[in-house]
Amino acid sequence: MKPLAIFGGTFDPIHLGHLCVAWEASELLDAEVLMMPSGIPPHRPPPIASAQQRVAMLRAALRGQSRLILDARELTRSGPSYTVDTMIELRAEQGERPLVLLLGADAFAGLPGWHGWRRLFELAHIGVLSRPGEQAVLPDVLQREISGRRVAGPAELRTLPAGKLVELSVTPMEISSTRIRELIAAGREPCYQLPAGLFDDPQLLAPYRR
Ligand code: ATP
User: Fold this and answer.
1) Where would I find the beta strands (DSSP E) of 114-187?
2) Which of 20, 110, 143, 184 is most buried, by the most CB atoms less than 10 A from its CB?
3) Of all protein residues, whose CA lies closest to atom 7 belonging to ligand 1?
4) Tens digit of pLDDT for each residue in 120-167?
């Protein structure tokens, strides 16, 4: 069965790094990718742009293709956006279909800080996306949890609904939302780091301007 992949983030704003790695993951896994903005991210300061503004940017960014699909379910839940709750919901919806939670290497290294993190392996496979500047020194608890879970390639994820770990080697894109927010606040226009659609409506990037 074709897997379904999930790529969560604050997307404050969505940038070409997100899109490029999500697209490549979609190709490598032969899967659609749900792009899932988090409402109240539990592990970091609140986003600058509102949920509505981040959704508007995602809509503009995802126009014209059908592999990367906006899923805004976390924005309608009250309280912190725990990934484990989302994966429980998706598992109930998708039956035995393989689910692949995509995490950048930085996010993966921080996984043991997430609420209910061990449960994630019962609910989904994890696909770790390489990210420039992230030398994965994994905490011991995470090393222990993943020992025996690594598979050689994405094809092996199709035979089971959850529980494996695959490293997806994607084109290095040294782009971050933090840097983009800094540039825009300084009056710059980082046009080749952001999807072109974000410049069509001047309101979309307004939250980051000073
Ligand atoms: P910020 O700078 O605000 O922390 P970010 O650029 O890291 O933002 P997020 O929305 O926090 O973006 O990231 C969502 C997911 O995308 C995370 O799993 C993160 O590791 C991954 N990610 C973001 N940018 C890249 C990139 N350039 N290459 C690979 N993975 C990335």
Assistant:
1) 125-129, 165-168
2) 184
3) 176
4) 999 999 999 998 886 668 999 999 999 999 999 999 999 999 999 999
